[in-house]
# Entry
Amino acid sequence: MSSSAPFTGMSHEFAIPEPVRVLVIDDSAFMRSALSRMIASEAGFEVVGTACSGAEGLEKVASLNPDVVTLDIEMPGLNGLQTLRYIMNHAPRPVIMVSSVTEAGTEQTFDALAAGAFDYVPKNLSSTSLDIAHIREDLIAKIRAAAQSRKPSPTGLSRKPPGSSWPNISEPASSTAPAIVALGTSTGGPKALEEILPVLPRDLSVPLLIVQHMPPGFTAPFAHRMNDLCAVTVREANNGEPILPGVVYIAPAGIHMTVKRFSDFESIIHLDIHPEHFPHIPSVDVLMNSVAEAFTNLAMGVILTGMGCDGAQGMKAIHCFGGITIGQDEETCAVYSMPRACADLGVLSRVVPLCEVPRQIVLATRSRKRA
# Structure
């Protein structure tokens, strides 16, 4: 028998994957320690360094070349947003913001997402480990998704002036133009929505209902931010309010949004904590199933970037009732999981880049007149 090693030339098949290398930047010694422990306790993750300021963080990004950076927003000196912009301009890589749930903190978080941050994890302002430990699952999931994402992210979309119409539309109008659009998204969603919602025209003839996975305290400020940017009206949904064309309704965090349709001309928003067994509340599936049942073939579903598979069953319901279903393509997604789940089910009418989503909505609904 030969003495040569039987697995020579095949060792790559059994190679252990390289760990995800993470740099933690936070001015709080407690937060640096807590975040480092959470990350290091996960198999396949390595904390390669910590930094107590934005300036030190930039030095360690250059010297350590981490795969992913967690970055505090509120820091003295070079703050998190300034640090992020430098990273994205000079050494782009996935950055996860660690932000506080305050009015200033949420606004800075959305600024960070617009500047290229991959995602964010909200922290409590308390200084006890019990108050911060609950973010571990969310933090680990987002670091893992960030490490798997492609960078740099797609370039921003060219926007049309608010209220402008689409030129050269030649596609024939559908005989059953959708009466409502339901949209679901998660990781990468705030930035995606900030790129496509301002493109929608002021005279949009249908309502648009959105589930964007966000923690409590973020959905109302996000709706206000979008309303300032858009020609259409954008607001956080309220229980029992009428559903009107040209209005974008964002589901509040921690509660499901569904619709009740009484006639062709009267529908309302319904908010409820039930059902409770869904991993995400609000759930894209819950919204889309409700819209499919209420509007049947007059429903349109749109699924954008996000982790997991929330929305797959809802998009399937809209598809089965004869509605239109649009999925964002892999190339323009921060995370392709949610659209992929729908594609794998074979329930997407069309797969388009993010920049094409507003046009698809306008094309599908343009023959429907506003009340």
